[in-house]
Design a protein that fits this description.
Elements lengths: L1 H44 L7 H23 L14 H33 L6 H7 L3 H28 L4 H15 L3 H21 L3 H24 L2 H24 L15 H9 L2 H18 L1
Length: 307
Amino acid sequence: MKAEQRKAEEGGIRRSAGRLAGGFFLMLALSIAAQLGLQLLLRAVWPEALEREGSTWALVLIQYGVGIPAVLLCAGRLPARTPERQRFSAGRLGEYFLAGYALLYLGNLAGTLLSQWISALLGHAVSNPAAELSAGSSLWMNLALVSALAPLAEEFLFRKLLLERLLPFGEKGAVMVSALAFGLFHGNLYQFFYAFGVGVILGLAYVRSGRFWFPVLLHMGFNFMGSVAALWVLGSGQPAALLLYLTGLLSLVAAGLAFLLADRACFRFRASVSDVPGGQWRRAFLQSPGTWLFLLGCGTLFALNLL
């Protein structure tokens, strides 16, 4: 009986993983095709537009416009479980923000160091797409898109659509897989590590609170600090403002690490009788063609970023 149950559980994960991963692979493929199509069209009829800020962001936002329908088409009807609403105070939300910010900083440091090491091996600089895009955009564009629209779209994709459809098989697997997919989705080493770490915190915030807006607000805060606040300080040219920003940043990181170490129980995964063991998760995912398609698509993006 147990063997049959394990087989049924693995089959359920494999079907869900295949449909979800297939949807995200379709999102990548359609996004790239739509971006190339728009670039070719603009180059033919309005080449000057390619140098404008609006067209650059239009190319970026296409991935959400085609991505959300693609994932819904492939996986929208899969069984899902919305996290149960639980008491989650403003102070606890602040604690999660600090913990996430610490992981963001450390992940960014790891990604930067690894990218610079690979740059030295390859003999040319590896681009940082997010930093280049934010630096080339106005303050208001970063505020509206990086700090508002992008977090809302990405939380819908990775926490609402992905995590909820994996949650019936266990909290730990659902949070970790959604975080890993979130990191891979960014398509470059600069962002992978911190996106994965932040993704774990965002997933935990959702399953602990049962409120979708909490990870959205956290994500908005992380992006605001990394784009709008950082660029405003750097653009001000004021040494005092830069010193104050760096002092505040390091203070946030120190406080976040303190919370992670002192309040570890707050960030532990909770087991339940419905949890599927990790070995079954891994087997089910590795047996899914959709998983390999998604990994192939993300791997291609990483490779192109290194060229």
